[in-house]
Amino acid sequence: MKRRRRFFEGTGKVLFEGPEPGTLVQYFKDDTTHNKRAGVITGKGVLNNRISEHLMSRLGEIGVPTHFLRRLNMREQLVREVEMIPVQVVVRNLAAGSFAERFGLTEGMPLPRSIVEYYYKAPDITPPLVTEEHITAFGWASTHDMDEMVPMALRVNDFLSGLFLGIGLKLVDVRLEFGRLWENEQPRLVLADEVSPDNCRLWDLKTNEKMDKDRFRQDLGQVEEAYQEVARRLGILPESGPGDLPGPEAIQ
C-alpha cells in the first residue's frame, strides 16, 4: 500500500499529496452522512470516481475549466491543487428537498427558471443558506469571483441537464464547488470537488424514481443499485462491478 501525506479528509473523499507539485490525489470513499446519521454505500466510491471522471471530462470538452486531470485507478483520480472557495453554489431546476419545504412547494414542481442559491461550507456545521452579501462581506469570495462562478454554474447546469435528459434522467438540482487555480501568480476560477449522484439530484424521466443520495437521506433502500443505474446509463459501469480498493496509508 502506498504511503502518502494526507492533506484533507471529508465524509466522501480523502485528498493526498500528488506525484507532482501542484497536484493532489483524490480518493473516493464509500462513507456517507445525512445530518448526524452516518452510513456506508458499498461501491459508491468506485462509481462516483467513474461518474465524476466522465462528467468532468465532458464539461472540459465544452470549455468549462476544472481541477480534474485523469483517473488513476478504481477509487482515485489526479486533480490540480486549488484554493477552495468555501461556498456551495446550488442550481435548482425543480422544487425538491429543503427548497420545497421552505416555500411550501410540491416536490417536483418545475421552477419558472433555474434558481441559484449559496451555502457556506465550514467544518462541523451544516452549511447554512447565505446571500452574496454574506459571501463578499466575510471575504469568502470576491464580487469578481461571483461574476465568474454564477455563469459557470448555470452553464454546467444547462449542459448536465441536457446530458442527463438524453439518458432518461431529470437533473432536479446540482451542488457545485469552485476553487482558485494559481498560474503565474494569477488566480483562475475552476470547477472542483466532484459531479456525481452525491451532489446531483437525479430522477427517472418517466417514473420520477430517485437515483441519487436522497435514497439514503430518505431511507428508500437500493442506494447502491441507483448509483449503478446512473453509471450504466452513462455507459461507464465498471465491468468488474463496483469492487473495492483500499486507500493509501496516510503519513503525518
Shape, per Cα inertia axes: globular
SSE pattern = EEEEEHEEEHEEHHEEEHHE
What is the CATH architecture assignment of the largest domain?
2-Layer Sandwich
Helix content: 25-40%
CATH class of the largest domain: Alpha Beta
| Class computed from helices, strands and strand pairing | alpha+beta
Please report which band the strand proportion falls in: under 5%, 5-15%, 15-25%, 25-35%, 35-45% or over 45%: 35-45%
Mean pLDDT: 92
| Largest sheet strand order | 6-7-3-2-1-14
The CATH topology of the largest domain is given as D-amino Acid Aminotransferase, Chain A, domain 1
> How many β-strand runs?
14
How many domains is the backbone divided into?
A: 2
Describe this structure in words.
This protein has helices spanning 44-61, 97-103, 132-137, 143-165, 214-217, 223-234, and strands at residues 3-9, 13-17, 23-28, 31-34, 37-40, 68-71, 76-80, 83-94, 110-120, 129-130, 169-183, 186-192, 200-204, 249-251. The protein is of the alpha+beta class. The chain folds into 2 domains: 3-81 and 223-247, Phosphorylase Kinase, domain 1 (2-Layer Sandwich); 83-204, ATP-grasp fold, B domain (D-amino Acid Aminotransferase, Chain A, domain 1, 2-Layer Sandwich). The protein is globular and about 50 Å long. The relative contact order is 0.20. The mean pLDDT is 92.
Short description:
With 252 residues, the protein is of the alpha+beta class. 28% of the residues lie in helices and 36% in strands.
